[in-house]
Amino acid sequence: MAAFPSGFLWGCATSAYQIEGSPLADGAGPSIWHRFAHTPGLMRDAETGDIACDHYRRFKDDVALMKRLGMQAYRFSVSWSRILPDGTGRVNQAGVDFYSRLVDELRANGIEPFVTLYHWDMPAALDDKGGWLNRDSAEWFAEYASVLFRALDGRVTKWATLNEPWVVTDGGYLFGALAPGHRNLFETPIASRNLMRAHGAAVRAYRETGRHEIGLVVNIEPKYPASESPEDLAATRRATAYMNEQYLDPAMLGRCPPELRDVFGEAWTDWSDDDLAAVRQPIDFLGINYYTRAVTRDDPAAWPVRTATVRQDGAFYTETGWEVYPQGLVDTLVWIKQRYGDIPLYITENGVALADAPVENGRLHDPQRIEYLRQHLLALHQAIAAGVDVRGYMVWSLLDNLEWSLGFSKRFGIVHVDRQTQERTLKDSAEYYSRIIASHGRALDDPT
Ligand code: GBH
Predict the structure, then answer these.
(1) Where is the catalytic site (predicted)?
(2) Which of 291, 296, 320, 412 to mutate to test the pocket of ligand 1 (most atoms within 8 A of CB)?
(3) Residue nearest to atom 12 of ligand 1 (CA)
(4) By residue range, what is the domain housing residue 272?
(5) Which of 145, 263, 279, 341 has a Cα at 20 to 30 A from 22?
(6) What is the DSSP letter of 106?
(7) What would the mean pLDDT of 416-437 be, rounded to a whole number?
(8) Does residue 1 have a pLDDT over 70?
(9) Catalytic positions, please?
(10) Helix spans in 271-366 (H)
(11) What is this structure's pTM?
């Protein structure tokens, strides 16, 4: 029953700082995440990415693991400060070589590399110059991207510019829970615009030299009004504009949602026509990261969007406190098609953090993750049947990894990682996902 389009790509996703470890190895410069993690008090349990999953040294084993699971694609990110230790200028060839070897290893194993250029780890040297608050950041990013395009585009066919620009600004500039840890309403729309200018500049650079596909990855969380009151409906509009449209509207439609004025107040300034034009570059696909939804009500005290999420009786909440809501994936994909038109989509992340079950005889049972994956893949199938052009699905994540400032306390992996020994153990969900891939989705019809 559950037939997926031919050529549909099944894979998994990770990001550099969350798994690699060895952040300063072989000439790499520090990133803002290295600094953030080494600032006392900012990370849960004083964790850092110094070792993480030691993937920098174990990448061949991890590729072998993916091969064993039948992965067809692997979405990973490149650490900018390994490539350009100072952010711009001097190229660190050893850093380029690491990703070049990873790409070769993937291709030798029949796994398609899907490269994210920016998954939150700006070179610290550039943060010293203002980071995303500096208008030059667009050119810095295009320079970095071009180095990678030249080195890898013959072997990499899928590129994403930014991962979740919303999280970069909301976590990094507005609420400060993520690097660089600012808490400044006035900075947030500036960082937001520069991130999107960087996206546009990288896409333009790609058109000069690249021969394949480039796109943008965003996190989408559909917002549903808690009631039909005018206040809740307006709150839902603000939340939608703030989280789901703030980045996609400029990139896809060449405008900004008007509700952002209401969210940012006097911190908002209109974009110039030149900036809007520079950001709206034709792209080849959109990557959608989907985890949860929000039932939204008006909350005048909640700075600055003035909304709150209403907890749902009877719903299942994961370890990160996010509601499991598979229908939200269908609604998201249909909404994207309606608002932004027909563009190839990839689910570039979807997954769940669960408390760790003990390893028993080398097995780790995670029935709730199997159920999460199954329900979301059925939802995805439903959206495809309704005519949405989805080309692939990447589970978040291959490995239990550093969940940013939450340290290693939240386990998203389909593969367990022992923090002391680095031993990898398949969870039941990894075996399950492997069967889904091998059957091209048909195993979704089997009882679990
Ligand atoms: C992704 O972001 C990241 O790309 C990845 O690095 C990370 O490890 C992974 O997800 C897991 O967190 O608290 O109810 O308001 C996730 C984006 C945005 C999803 C905020 C959850 C908050 C829901 N997240 N959202 S709630």
Answers:
(1) 349
(2) 291
(3) 403
(4) 9-445
(5) 145
(6) H
(7) 97
(8) no
(9) 349
(10) 273-279, 327-340
(11) 0.98
Alpha carbon distances (Å) from 178 to 92, 127, 171, 403 = 26, 14, 5, 11
Nearest to 44 by CA among 432, 421, 414, 406: 406
* 3 band by pLDDT with thresholds 50, 70 and 90: confident
Whether the Cβ atoms of residue 180 and residue 128 lie closer than 8 Å to each other: no
| Ligand 1 pocket by Cβ (under 6 Å) | 15, 18, 163-164, 167, 219, 221, 289, 291-292, 309, 321-322, 349, 396, 403, 412
4 in any annotated domain = no
Confidence label for 297 from pLDDT (cuts 50, 70 and 90): very high
CB 16 within 8 A of CB 98: no
The answer to whether residue 3 is domain-embedded is no
Q: Best of 120, 216, 224, 289 to mutate for ligand 1, by most ligand atoms within 8 A of CB? A: 289
Task: Tell me whether residue 1 is in a domain.
Answer: no
**Count of domains forming the chain:** 1
For residues 109-115, give the mean pLDDT. 98
pLDDT in the model for residue 362: 80
Tokens of 162: 């930014």
Give the ipTM.
0.97
Give the pLDDT of residue 14: 99
How far away, in angstroms, is 6 Cα from ligand 1 center? 30
**SS3 state of residue 33:** helix
Specify whether the CB–CB gap between 121 and 28 falls below 8 A.
no
CATH number of the domain encompassing residue 264: 3.20.20.80
Check residue 360 and give its pLDDT: 81
pLDDT in tens, 274-288: 999 999 999 999 999
**Among 410, 434, 414, which Cα is nearest to 424's?**
414
Residue 390 lies in a domain: yes
pLDDT at 2 over 90: no
Nearest 10 degrees: CA dihedral of 253, 255, 257, 260? 140
Beta bridge partner(s), residue 399: 415
Q: What is the Cβ-side half-sphere exposure of residue 345, based on CA atoms within 13 angstroms?
A: 26
Question: Ligand 1 center to residue 291 CA distance, Å?
Answer: 7
Q: What are the C-alpha distances in Å from 96 to residues 213, 252, 280? A: 20, 31, 29
C-alpha 13 to ligand 1 mean position (Å) = 14
pLDDT at 301 over 90: yes
